[in-house]
Amino acid sequence: MASALTSHANGTIAKPTVKGTLALVYSVFKLRIGFAIMFTALAGVAVAPGQAPGLVQTAVLALAVLLSSASAGAFNMYMERDLDARMKRTRNQPFVTGRFKANGYWLAGIVLLLAFAIAAAALATNAAAAFYVFMGAFVYGVVYTVWLKRRTWMNIVIGGLAGSFAILAGAAAVDPGLALAPLLLALVLFLWTPPHFWSLAFKYKDEYAAADVPMLPVVVPDATAAWIILAHTVALVVLSLVPVMFGMGWIYLLGAALGGARFVWTSIGLVRNPSPSMAMTNFHASLVQLTLLLGGAILDAWLIPSI
Hints:
The chain is mostly helical and 307 residues long. It has helices at 18-28, 31-47, 55-79, 81-85, 94-97, 104-124, 127-148, 155-159, 161-174, 180-203, 205-210, 216-219, 222-241, 250-272, 276-302.
């Protein structure tokens, strides 16, 4: 991770740079994940039947989801700074190094950011969408981070609901009653998260073990973890094709089928070769699958009708 500090040849530490500080802010708020969650919410808007909100309303909702995710990401880093200090890949996080001080000001800022996101979603759309915006942050920040992560290998299974709420927030902005298509897509997101994250945890299982975090690849043999990942992936891909029966079109079907086929194929590869390198290949395949699936959903709704 980029550092906000630079070193001179004589060994002295220079003052933090603006670029370096912004990089740390980007990492603390997990904005890369936040933009993905925002994209997920837009897919929820796209697949919900009915009149979509206007451009400004949709933009405000997307920003609210991004800020809500950012608040949850920062809270996660704040609460897990002791774990991050024990893992090689996270030991340079700013709350660990002391670049950012973990104090009450950070907590207050995180709460205010979430409150602003919820209020913006409510004012731009409706209370149901705002509720789902809140629930996404609550599940990730409290249910997953505080309650489950250090206690059970089921942590990411239940914590996966956080991404599903982004779909529901987008869909509720169109119709608070929630039609079947967005509910199915939310379930797809719920099933996607475990094999996605378990593949990453497979790569870093030794670090999770050192930090006493019971991720699935830590608590079961490699072969067992690989088979469980494959089973989840197959269930995910099969379910991802079901929305076609409830109004989703051929672009969505193409994206879901191509991305799903690749994800299943690499998951089979992980079963055949349960290694860290193959786990990362599977991790990246999960990202491709989600991008094609959500992109297909958006294009189906927003491109085809305009042709």
